Amino acid sequence: MNLIEEFNTYRSQMNEKIMAADNKVIKRFFNLDTNTYSEGAVDIKTKEMIGLACSMVLRCNDCIKYHLGKSFEAGLSKEEIFEVFSIATIIGGSIVIPHLRRAVEYWDLLEEEKNTDV
After folding, report:
1. Long-range contacts of the stretch 100-106 (C-beta < 8 A, 24+)
2. Is the dihedral of CA 110, 94, 61, 41 positive or negative?
3. Best CATH choice for the domain 57-118 from the list 2.115.10.20, 3.40.30.10, 1.20.1290.10, 3.40.50.300
4. Is the pTM of this model over 0.90?
5. How would you label 81-96 residue by residue, b for 16+ Cβ within 10 Å and e otherwise?
6. 65 with 59: CB under 8 angstroms?
7. Is the pLDDT of residue 118 over 70?
8. How far apart are CA 53 and CA 15, in angstroms?
9. Where are the alpha helices (DSSP H) in the chain?
10. How many CB atoms lie within 10 A of CB 68?
11. What is the rounded distance in angstroms from the CA atom of residue 88 to the CA atom of residue 32?
12. DSSP characters for 58-79?
């Protein structure tokens, strides 16, 4: 299992367990998160770029992977992703660099996976 599959499988399995607990507050929070990134006055691509930059500054590796995957699905180019990376690095400073490395690795994997599916 590659890094992308591992991340997505783990995330799905744990989300199922969390939702199975049927906690109203957690369910509402998850729903709020889903609705926040839905199409609205701001398009999905832009919302994912904002989410990615914020995740990098907050140094949340799972969040970074999630938003990279969603950005990839939304059709962001490598050039656009690197502009987001540059914004996050400027805002967050040098402490973001280790997360930048992991983000570049994950983006490369997303591109490789797409190229092997073609």
Report:
1. 100/56, 102/61, 102/64, 103/52, 103/56, 103/64, 103/68, 105/3, 106/3, 106/4, 106/64, 106/65, 106/68
2. negative
3. 1.20.1290.10
4. yes
5. beebbebbbeebeeeb
6. no
7. no
8. 23
9. 3-20, 24-36, 44-58, 61-73, 78-92, 97-117
10. 27
11. 24
12. HT-HHHHHHHHHHHHHTT--HH
The structure tokens 């998850």 sit at 30
Q: What is the DSSP letter of 39?
A: S
Q: Which amino acid is at 85?
A: F
Tokens of 4: 């992308």
Report helix, strand or coil for 116.
helix
- Spell out the residues 6+ positions from residue 63 whose beta carbon is closer than 8 angstroms to its own: 51, 55
pLDDT in tens, 34-90: 999 999 999 999 999 999 999 999 999 999 999 999 999 999 999 999 999 999 999
Record the tokens describing residue 18, joined without a space.
Answer: 């969390």
Q: 9 is written with which tokens?
A: 């499988």
Which two structure tokens, joined as six digits, stand for 29? Answer: 């929070």
